[in-house]
Design a protein that fits this description.
- It is a single chain.
- The chain is of the alpha+beta class and 168 residues long.
- It has 4 helices and 6 strands, in the order H-E-H-H-E-E-H-E-E-E.
- It has a domain of 107 residues: TolA/TonB C-terminal domain (2-Layer Sandwich).
- The strands form 2 sheets. A 4-stranded mixed beta sheet has the order 1-6-2-3.
- The longest helix is centred in the first third of the chain and has 21 residues.
- 15% of the residues are buried.
């Protein structure tokens, strides 16, 4: 009888140790970096992968105008005639605010500091959604400086108020 109990306990111990070795290790989930045109429905997506990406009110055009209106081109960058982008990684929170900006690609220390000042001012985002619930996600934003911020905006052929002519 003791031999039967001992054999059962040994079998139970070996099964427990085998299960412990094959069980996947639990690691914290890495944030997902969303990029334009990279949102696809997946049959077996990660638990933190959104069904819908965060959206800035007015889209990319409004985002570009926000940067043009709010970025103060640093004097040191102007003297050096620097032009380009600072790539900033930040979190769009479930409440539509932006937090934790970090420079992912630098242009200059002055431009980096200005980008880090401006990015948290981007409020009003429609947050990413997962199964109908808002979800914080990590995004990458290109913040333009110098000539990189030039935008061409078409005015939908509206007539000019002064001349009555159409403006493009």
């Amino acid at each position: 009888m003791n031999k039967t109990i001992l054999t059962g306990l040994l079998m139970l111990a070996s099964v427990s140790s085998a299960l412990a070795q094959t069980a996947p290790a639990t690691t914290p989930q890495q944030p997902i970096i969303l990029k334009a045109d990279n949102m696809q429905v997946q049959a077996h997506s990660a638990a933190n992968r959104p069904d819908r990406a965060p959206v800035y009110p007015g889209g990319e055009q409004a985002l570009g105008l926000f940067f043009l209106d709010n970025i103060k081109y640093p004097d040191a960058a102007r003297v050096k005639q620097l032009s380009g982008i600072v790539l900033v990684t930040a979190t769009v929170n479930a409440d539509g605010t932006v937090s934790n900006p970090v420079v992912a690609k630098s242009l200059s220390p002055e431009c980096d500091a200005e980008a880090l000042r401006v990015v948290p001012l981007l409020t009003g985002w429609q947050p990413a959604m997962r199964k109908g619930r808002p979800l914080p996600v990590l995004i990458q934003l290109p913040v333009p400086f110098g000539g990189a911020g030039n935008m061409k905006i078409e005015m939908n052929n509206r007539p000019s108020p002064a001349s009555g002519r159409r403006v493009k």
